[in-house]
Specification:
Elements lengths: L8 H61 L6 H20 L2 H21 L4 H4 L2 H35 L4 H7 L12 H4 L4 H8 L1
Helix pairs in contact: 1-2, 1-5, 2-3, 3-8
Amino acid sequence: MGVFSTLPVPAMLFLVPLLALLIVLALYGVRIYNGLVALRENVRKAWANIDVLLSQRHDELPKLVETCRRYMAHERDTLEQVMRARSAVFTAQGKGDVRALGAAEDQLREGLGRLFALAEAYPELRANESFRHLQQRITELEEAIADRRELYNEAVNLNNIRVQTFPDLLVARWLQFPNQQLLEFKEEQKRDVDLATLFDRSA
């Protein structure tokens, strides 16, 4: 029995259960760690899915604004708002700053809502095939981003519950598994655009 054969019986009766307990705790700690890693990777994967859609929309927005500019010469402020918000989204996206991204998304969605509403007053623009294609494409991307946002926030919530719950929080704090930030939009940005309200604002 090696070392244990030289120990008195009382010491063995104490050390063997202690060793067994330490092994169980180590295995349990490994299980917790693996679970936390899986949750962290789910958050990263969900964020990557949003990131792809943001990049696709980023590429489409200048085309939309340029198409609108040809017909909407008097809507310069709205067009500039869209482009400023686009830049803010891109900056936050590059930094991985979820809080700043949520704020920039609010501004962009408001600008796009106003732009599409004002486009109703320009029949030639609405008849433009390029505009119709871009409007449909960006609307589809907006819907996809909203769907992916829900999946991302679900992954974040699952992660945050685990890292704040005992005994997982002990491993999370020791190995620096942080809380993740939810991607939140203002309530008014989640609702359908109120065309009448937008036209009143622009009057």
